[in-house]
């Protein structure tokens, strides 16, 4: 049996505006993509979330059919689901928060090998992150605790927490922009070094098409992006990377291989809309095959 992982964060409804003018509505959120990915790769995934009356039953059914335990997803009839508008243009992405569900309150977590915290709209407090990090092996995507909402509902990144409060986090997965916001270091390698010095166990820093830096106190690698990937929809790619990395790292304890599995899974996910590629029957085998190619190009780095 695979590792048992619980994922905490808002399941969202995403209105995605593509460069060609197409608009699609899709399930989203770190908890959605990462739990589904880890489940597809053999882990036993459980999601804790809060949704509103407007969350489509079909989205929940997709998670359930992918093997994700959704029994702890709470539906509030009196509120709406967290909803984002995502606009792609000129190689950039703009995000707007249209609705926000209530904070998530998890009174007890039982029988898990790791916890993946994936807040997207401040639904998890920094105090809760500290608490969980003391009690469990915890992976954190900090995007949701770094976001500030402008008057026009546009999302910008702002350092809203004391970085020292993350020192017990086992795995920190973040983008280059989030790393710069959190650490004050624009150069990715310097940001990684600063995070590791805090005591964070492992860092995964995504740089889009430029690749990924993965590092801990013993191993540090540059993992290139998969150059043959055909980009259709990059939404959720970082979350897929995180879910794949965590599932494989818990299983094999091989840091480099888990890093390549993560990058491979992300490269496959962007080749179709939403989570279609992750849900394909050949996903697990394709991830492994592509990971071998990626590992041949990976290289050790020094901070």
Short descriptors:
alpha/beta, 10-stranded mixed sheet, 303 residues, 16 strands, 4-stranded mixed sheet, single chain
Descriptive report:
- This protein is of the alpha/beta class and 303 residues long.
- The protein has a single domain (4-300), classed as Ribokinase (UDP-N-acetylmuramoyl-L-alanine:D-glutamate ligase), CATH 3.40.1190.
- The protein has helices spanning 30-40, 57-65, 126-135, 176-183, 188-198, 237-252, 255-269, 276-279, 283-297, and strands at residues 4-8, 12-17, 23-28, 44-52, 69-76, 83-89, 92-99, 114-117, 138-140, 147-149, 155-157, 171-175, 202-206, 212-216, 220-223, 299-300.
- Strands 5-4-1-8-9-12-13-14-15-16 form a ten-stranded mixed beta sheet, sandwiched between helices.
Separation of the first and last Cα atoms = 37 Å
Number of helices: 9
Q: Provide the β-strand percentage band.
A: 25-35%
Number of strands: 16
- Give the CA-based shape: globular
- CATH fold field value: UDP-N-acetylmuramoyl-L-alanine:D-glutamate ligase
Question: Would you list the SSEs in sequence order as H and E?
Answer: EEEHEHEEEEHEEEEHHEEEHHHHE
Would you state the CATH class? Alpha Beta
Query: Which blocks of ≥5 consecutive residues have pLDDT under 50?
Result: none
By secondary-structure content and strand pairing, the structural class works out as alpha/beta
Overall domain count: 1
Q: Give a short account of the largest sheet.
A: 10 strands, mixed
Mean of pLDDT: 95
Rg from Cα: 18 Å
Helix content: 25-40%
Look at the structure and name the CATH superfamily: Ribokinase
